[in-house]
């Protein structure tokens, strides 16, 4: 039986215009057999959460290099959960200082992929984590 | 759990709609159950297919059309299809991103789908997604195809109104127009109408449509015969040609008018029922085909199949005989 | 320069060398790779000789510094006359904090100012706009009105220091604010020197901080050319940029080609307005990236000068030699700096800065080692500045002009990059120009493809990044991380509220109305109207709102 596809939403919250990383990750995930929806720039947390809901994604990847991550990322996770998307894996990438990571994880960001992360690391993490989430939902 | 989802979807709950579409995409027994439960609630929506070669601006057009429909008070569902990579099995679903204007609108639902190995311009589950949105109360459902290969034919069997989008500058006027378009298009759109050659494309379409007699034309370098107009007592619809500049929102109102005219024509002429019957027959046939094949294969030993196939490859028996053998053991 | 006989002999001897000495050596020790390529994917030979630059004509291709084609430098004395400007890009938090950082850097020897604005300001939003939520001061200083600008430059002699402002869509407005600050201090505009980046084409291509569509954006830019030529003659009204194109993932060749082509579009736009090319061309400036491949970067700068000079003279008929000069600022490549083992970045930046100097840059910003982590700390920015000073005063590379001129490798590369750039020019010409190419997504796709290739090479370890995919260590990062003052935003918002309260709101309303009317008339130069709005303390957001309503907002074609 073919593996259920993994659907990923890649989003750029806020005014940050640096999309090189988001686009590279989108391609890498596609090359790894996933279905990727890229929202484009200048997304509000509300727009991201609504897109994640309609597209019924397994993963939301937030790319942010502007420094506004503490204001935008936790809010995005909160909106996702409010819309009933409890099982969606939320990961982040970009320029996020180490010391902010614990707070982000507390707010529901599962993992932060900083500069220098290889695309294989991201692909493997998503594959494993999504499989884990799917398993636990089946058993629930 | 499934009942809850179905009930919620019928009431318009977006989360439920999204979940059901995923279930349909993953096509298990659950999908079948869900669609059985939803079916009675379908049949209200006007399904509009938008097809055309890549680069014709379909997504932008769909965005603008949806905005227009929203102004007119319709709830709009959009299914946007993109190709799955045959090498990696993955896909970049890049249509939603062109529909920014609709992101914050509660009366719009956008779902991106990958073809996932289906050979046409639609995802296998596209028709299912359409049914789900229909049952959920969306008045207009816009389906945007991949725009290559069999797209035109596929969309025609799913949509009530099929729009074919052309643009100037893709080649010589007549050669732009693919064979099969004429039979499938209910409305032609010449998008990017501000570019040079737009009038030429429109003219070519006019010319091809007015040819009532069998005529030969040069098409993609090949001399082709155009089918004569069918002699029939049925009322006929002449596909209008709408010029648009989707990026500027120009020509959209006229396009929406044309679509409404087509809807009225379908309802008044009885063509709506015809199309529904066609859709139903195609769908049942498709499901029957898949079902019967599954049953046949389930009754035959996997090894027996392998063995027979091996003999076909070695030219010991031919494929027809092989199939007869496989099916024969079932009567 | 080398006669045909001599070249023939060299070639023959090289073949001999390859068959004997080289072979023996390779048999003992094969080379580390099958193919050596630079960052533009050009194959690099083991050795370069005069035979690799056949028909080399010194006078045609190089000439003398300060003379056409300027390959060796735009000034006759270059750094012997005057060192490049040490101009460190800075800005964060509120105007007060950035003003302090400016003074710190000037005290430590920087010779020009460079302003970084925060994202809301870059997009023309006031701090209290809902779009600005969470973004205050994070990657630059927040400027919402003239009041902030006055504080930003408090205590800084605008007639003695030149200022570069990295601002694009709202450039005309921020420039107007700077001009009014000077005006209020009694400094005549004719004495003001500086730059506004004001390069919208590269926004569409790479940096994505666009607001309006191409046509009105180009109109605003030419308005600044016209205004500057008349009233602020020492001001560079544009900094045609390749830096961001490179940061987005482009190769060196793409950076060179797209930047210069953008330049051609701006010259065309000015001429179409009816300006004489020599009126505004001398004030066009450029901004390049200094990336890792040392010799490729140097060749790139030299090729840029030669191409620009030729095109300005031949394609656009410029007669004033100053119109042929390619004057440029350089910034070392941010995207090459790593979060892992950040001290290594000091070394990277030093080498990149050296390439910029050997390439003849007029102005230089060196990145701080904590680039990939946060805003630059005082220590990090000081080291970055010292890097430039050490190159200038201790290495001796500034004692002679274009020291690498004549290197067989560098001359070969310079030619090759020039050829490759012209190939791109032809492609873009065929598409109908850069704006048409952008609509088609051409430069964006080239860049996205190059970025993906680069990442794949790193993932597959075909390209080593020290500390990241090789020579890694697990140590925690111990360098100081800079924080912005949490009170800064509150202060700024209070100031903004006070400005709105205390100004003559009727006057503001009228100025904005007049601006709206002028914006709707393509024949009007908007600078005087913007200046009036600024003098009345209309805010950045208010002015941009009017322009957004008249010009509309740009929707980019999506290329992934």
Please supply descriptive tags for the structure shown above:
heterotrimer, A: 140 residues, alpha/beta, Rossmann fold, 5 strands, C: 560 residues, TIM Barrel, 9-stranded parallel sheet, 22 helices, 51% helix, globular
CATH superfamily of chain A: Cobalamin-binding domain
How is the largest sheet of chain A built, in terms of strand order? 2-1-3-4-5
Highest-level CATH class of chain A? Alpha Beta
Instruction: Characterize the largest beta sheet of chain A: strand count, sense, and whether it forms a barrel.
Output: 5 strands, parallel
Assembly state (oligomeric): heterotrimer
Under the CATH scheme, the architecture of chain A is 3-Layer(aba) Sandwich
Strand content of chain B: 15-25%
CATH superfamily caption of the largest domain in chain B: P-loop containing nucleotide triphosphate hydrolases
What percent of residues of chain A are in strands? 15-25%
Which strand order does the major sheet of chain B show? Answer: 4-2-5-1-6-7-10
How many structural domains in the coordinates of chain A?
1
Question: Whole-Å distance between the termini of chain A?
Answer: 22 Å
How many helices of chain B? The count is 13
Structural class designation of chain B = alpha/beta
Low-confidence stretches of chain B: 172-176, 212-216
Query: In terms of structural class, how would the helical and strand content of chain A be classed?
Result: alpha/beta
Supply the CATH class of the largest domain in chain B.
Answer: Alpha Beta
Task: Provide a quick synopsis of the model.
The complex is a heterotrimer of chains A (140), B (331) and C (560). Chain A has 140 residues and is an alpha/beta fold.
